Amino acid sequence: MPSHLEFARSFQTALGSDHLPLGAQAGDPTEIAQRFNVYRNNVAYGLSRALARQFPAVERLVGTDCFAGVAQIFIEHHPPRSPNLTDWGVEFPEFLASLETLSTLPYLRDVARIEWARSRAYHACDAKPSSSERLKSLAQHHSICLHASVQVLNLATPAGSIWASQQPGGPAPPAPENWLPETVLIARRGVASMITELIPPEIACFLQQILARQTLATACAKAGPDFDLTEALVLLIRNDLITDINDGRMK
Amino acid sequence: MLPAKTGLGFKPEHFPAIIETQPDLGFFEVHAENYMNAGGMPHAMLERLRENYAISVHGVGLSIGGPDPLDEPHLTRLKALCDRYQPESFSEHLAWASHGGTWMHDLLPLPYTAETLDIVCDHIDRLQEVLGRKILLENPATYLTFAQSDIPETVFLAQIAQRTGCGLLLDVNNVFVSCVNHRSDPRAYLDAFAMHAVGEIHLAGHDSEELPSGPLLIDSHGKAVSEPVWALFGEIVSKFGPIPSLVEWDNDVPDFATLFAEAHRAAQRLEDTRHALAS
């Protein structure tokens, strides 16, 4: 009799091959393979749909059938390691970029990066925004704590605009002759309101400095002469993304 | 303990309707693995539900029936979830879903042997130790059996309950699906089931395919509860009295009114039983 470990190994192998698990039986032995297919289909379909939930715009861009095929290869190379499936898929953007057959869609990797970041933001820790009293005390030597959902992506492609074009009622995607690199802010306002917003590169640079816990003065200097601090602070305050202010020393 | 009323599996798309109508339900059940992250809408909704309803946390991720040791980080997350929401019930499955660090995202079947009985009991002991509470273990829907199995499923579950002190979650749809698939009698299965240990009942819909030997039912959770499953449910509650009973509908989810109508049908059954017992 096989040990349980031998059985489980054989079952797992059978899911991805023509084999059958050790000891599998049915009243009519000719039906064993068809019955086992229920498990094969459940595993393949369940994981493919879980990946599609993380990357819905990628699925819309390539089509359902193509996505299912891509997902199958991705699952073979990068299966989930945890039952917390929202932690699965960090490798998907680079994996998409590595696929020769998708090289005609050079923005796909960046769209996937946006969707991964949105998933992080959606589940990020809750935090109350700083009070207006506290915000009034903001000075050049302070650093700012941003909401845990805040992420800034520098994209070589217009993936922010293309992502937006895939949303219900979204604008038309830019024509290829107008393609430019984009910088995108991804965050969450409160518990529910997702932010995916194109921002000027100098604000992106400023936010990256703030995320690295630099002082306002340093972040402004790094952001360059075109940077508008008021515009950046309005963006953050309007979206409740400043959660604390500290005196500039690293905590 | 859950109240001996009907509950529904919580679907986020139903949240506005639930808050607006405050339906008369005994409890909501949530899948533990949908609440493993730090914040955002999932927790905001669950906190709001918790204010008005008893909560059952139903895990699908622990792979209790697998040969590997339990995933300790996942146990820690489950403990944190139970500490945060203090659910009236925590349940898991007699199944496995991961091996060698790979998560397969399905409830896979296991042979029933002395070895697997020891493994499952050890895993439940560990789970109950971490959570500091008794859990309920659900009977599976299966499509195959295994030559190495030498313990009937009902005996296997009864022995787990006896050895670990855990309760059982009787999924009546799973009983029907498995018995049809293995050409056995669901009433004989239920007669052999350790009903004294049952803390909750599950009801759900299934799909059907045709095999040369007859139907193969698939536990799809994608439609209304079937009439034969309602009949079995009626027989169980008229014999054993009201039991917390959940309607699950996880795929092709209908609007809340449709789902609530299913729960209402189950509630009628429980009420009929209460009246019959009282008279």
Give the secondary structure arrangement, pairings included.
The complex is a heterodimer of chains A (251) and B (279).
Chain A: H1 4-15, E1 24-25, H2 32-54, H3 56-62, H4 64-77, H5 92-98, H6 108-123, H7 132-136, E2 143-146, E3 151-155, H8 159-165, E4 182-189, E5 193-198, H9 201-211, H10 216-223, H11 229-238, E6 242-246
Antiparallel strand pairs in A: 2-6, 3-4, 4-5
Helix pairs in contact in A: 2-4, 3-4, 3-6, 5-6, 6-8, 9-10
Chain B: E1 6-9, H1 15-21, E2 27-31, H2 41-52, E3 54-58, H3 72-85, E4 89-93, E5 96-99, E6 102-108, H4 114-131, E7 136-138, E8 145-146, H5 153-164, E9 167-171, H6 172-181, H7 186-192, E10 198-204, E11 207-211, E12 214-218, H8 227-240, E13 245-248, H9 256-278
Parallel strand pairs in B: 1-2, 1-13, 2-3, 3-4, 4-7, 7-9, 9-10, 10-13
Antiparallel strand pairs in B: 5-6, 11-12
Helix pairs in contact in B: 4-5, 8-9
Structural account:
The complex is a heterodimer of chains A (251) and B (279). By secondary structure, chain A is α+β, with helices and mostly antiparallel strands. Chain A has helices at residues 4-15, 32-54, 56-62, 64-77, 92-98, 108-123, 132-136, 159-165, 201-211, 216-223, 229-238, and strands at residues 24-25, 143-146, 151-155, 182-189, 193-198, 242-246. Chain A folds into 2 domains: 1-105, no CATH class; 125-251, no CATH class. Chain A is built from 11 helices and 6 strands. In chain A, the strands form 2 sheets. A 3-stranded antiparallel beta sheet of chain A has the order 3-4-5, with helices on both faces. In chain A, strands 2-6 form a two-stranded antiparallel sheet. In chain A, helix 3 (56-62) runs antiparallel to helix 6 (108-123) and helix 9 runs antiparallel to helix 10 (216-223). Chain A is elongated and about 75 Å long. Chain B is α/β, with parallel strands linked by helices. Chain B has one domain (6-278): Divalent-metal-dependent TIM barrel enzymes (TIM Barrel). In chain B, 42% of the residues lie in helices and 22% in strands. In chain B, the strands form 3 sheets. Chain B has an 8-stranded parallel barrel, surrounded by 5 helices. A two-stranded antiparallel ribbon of chain B has the order 5-6. Chain B has a two-stranded antiparallel sheet with strand order 11-12. Chain B is globular and about 50 Å long.
